[in-house]
Design goal:
Helix content is 72%, strand content 0%. By secondary structure, it is mainly alpha-helical. The chain has one domain: Amino acid/polyamine transporter I (Up-down Bundle). It is a multi-pass membrane protein.
């Protein structure tokens, strides 16, 4: 008994000593962070629980994005890719979101993926943090570009629909993208004041328009057969003759809309009680949007009408033909398509805000060149104005791609999906390695427990499967005009990040890694 008491007292003494060391270290860390905030500025916490949920819910706008991009699946996979792929993507992306939510519960930070990679990597922490940071920033800037790209595609499609003599030029699309970028850019100057009413209006419209669209198509549209919806695998239309390949390529329509759930993560410094609210927002937004996307695609397949007309519509936007065949009215069709555009436009405000915070955080940690300029917060507006300007400039420059390529829209859709899934993979991998190792983890309020290992494995397997198909060209034979540039551009970013590491990144980059205390 005496020996047991001695052991217990010794253990308590060790714990107290560790706690004292941790307290000192935490005090030093907080002191450094305070000094950093004084020099670079800090964001204020103002986002409540409802706004945090609505932020992610609207940002994804999954059923709207699927409605205006399902032309990719019509020629690759068809109904089989859309129906079964939507179910598969919903389950897989939810597993990815839950895996990342567990990390968000430990360390809810604006940097998110790059900070977690640096924190949980078994070695070369700064290297993985810098590489992850470049990939995540690139992914989100591409994601920010996809919103005006989709909106410009809608405008051009409606112009052709209403004025058949109109012949669109590539530079028209670029100008339209620029026009759609200006208002969200200016609106983000006062995003704090706009947030609550904007999120509330967006959430109501997101749900209300969904219900109205479903009811309209079910009541008015011509019915497809069950065999068409559940048993049709479209292949040899795009040039790909292998059914498995066409199904995989067709996943782009259903996987792209479900990415971006980490957007609320990059607002973490402005979310109250972030350790509980950010993970809940991520999981809620993915699960709700997955269900809505699946329901809308199922309804769409049963009410698609004349498939030949839809697939070969001169508007290049099949959803216009679907609504027109259902309603028989140009005015009603315009209304329904504009409804889609409204939600995507509101989501653009959220994406803009999220990516500007990410660029600010990465610059604050000296991940980007000219970090002292981009890593500051405007004292009056309480937002990263310089980072916002950088994002806006990148969108303006990327929009010029439309002038030189007829398949730019495809790139704007496949690029963010590919880059974002890559950015999700490495934090989950490193966290999984840490979970199965002997090193202890200080979990946050949200913990997976025994489900952690199988869920992380499934999430990583799903990501790898999706990443395989994203760089594939959607049409054969491949030419300079129809080439899928997503893979080469991601490779260029990785190469650029490696060069940055070798030249100056390894000396410049400083990531504040959260301490992981053992649990006693």
């Amino acid at each position: 008994m005496a020996d047991d008491k001695d052991v217990e007292l010794a253990a308590r003494a060790d714990i107290e000593e560790i706690g004292a060391h941790d307290a000192i270290a935490d005090g030093q860390t907080k002191s450094v962070e305070k000094q950093s905030q004084k020099s670079a500025g800090a964001l204020e916490k103002y986002i409540n629980f409802v706004s945090a949920i609505n932020f992610g819910f609207i940002l994804q706008c999954s059923w709207e994005a699927a409605a205006v991009t399902f032309q990719f699946s019509l020629i690759n996979g068809g109904p089989a890719a859309m129906f079964y792929g939507s179910l598969f993507a919903g389950i897989g992306t939810t597993a990815v979101a839950i895996s990342l939510a567990e990390m968000a519960s430990i360390d809810p930070t604006v940097g998110a993926q790059y900070r977690w990679s640096a924190s949980f990597a078994p070695r070369w922490n700064e290297f993985w943090g810098l590489m992850q940071g470049w990939m995540t920033v690139f992914a989100w800037i591409c994601s920010c570009t996809s919103n005006p790209a989709i909106l410009s595609n809608i405008v051009v499609g409606l112009a052709i629909f209403n004025y058949p003599d109109y012949v669109p030029e590539r530079w028209h699309t670029t100008l339209i993208m620029w026009a759609f970028t200006i208002l969200p850019f200016i609106g983000n100057f006062w995003f704090r004041r706009l947030l609550n009413p904007l999120e509330m209006i967006g959430a109501i419209c997101h749900l209300l328009f969904f219900i109205v669209s479903i009811i309209t198509l079910v009541v008015l549209a011509q019915r497809s057969t069950a065999s068409y919806v559940f048993s049709t695998l479209t292949h040899d239309v795009s040039g790909w003759s292998n059914g498995a390949v066409t199904w995989g390529i067709g996943l782009l329509t259903v996987t792209f809309p479900l990415t971006g759930f980490d957007g609320v993560l990059h607002m973490s410094d402005e979310v109250k009680q972030a350790k509980t609210r950010v993970p809940r927002s991520m999981i809620a937004s993915v699960s709700m949007n997955s269900i809505m996307q699946f329901a809308y695609i199922l309804c769409l397949l049963f009410t698609i009408g004349d498939v030949e007309k839809v697939a070969n519509t001169p508007t290049l936007l099949p959803i216009i033909e679907v609504y027109y065949e259902a309603t028989g009215s140009k005015r009603a069709t315009n209304l329904f398509v504009v409804m889609l555009a409204i939600i995507i436009f509101i989501a653009f405000f959220n994406v803009f805000a999220s990516v500007s915070r990410l660029v600010w955080a990465f610059s604050r940690d000296k991940g980007l060149p000219f970090s002292s300029f981009f890593g500051v917060v405007h004292p009056g507006l309480k937002m990263p104005l310089n980072a916002l300007g950088l994002v806006g400039t990148c969108i303006f420059l990327l929009a010029i791609i439309n002038i030189g390529s007829t398949t730019a829209f495809n790139a704007f859709i496949s690029l963010p999906a590919l880059a974002l899934y890559i950015s999700y993979f490495f934090p989950i991998l490193f966290f999984f390695m840490r979970r199965v190792s002997s090193k202890p983890l200080a979990y946050g309020p949200f913990r997976l427990g025994r489900l952690g290992i199988p869920l992380n494995l499934f999430a990583m397997s799903y990501i790898i499967f999706i990443i395989i198909w994203m760089p594939f060209p959607t049409i054969l034979p491949v030419t300079g005009n129809n080439m899928n540039y997503a893979g080469p551009l991601v490779a260029v970013v990785i190469l650029g990040a490696l060069c940055d590491w070798v030249i100056s990144g390894r000396k410049r980059f400083q990531v504040p890694v959260a301490r992981q205390r053992p649990e006693f």
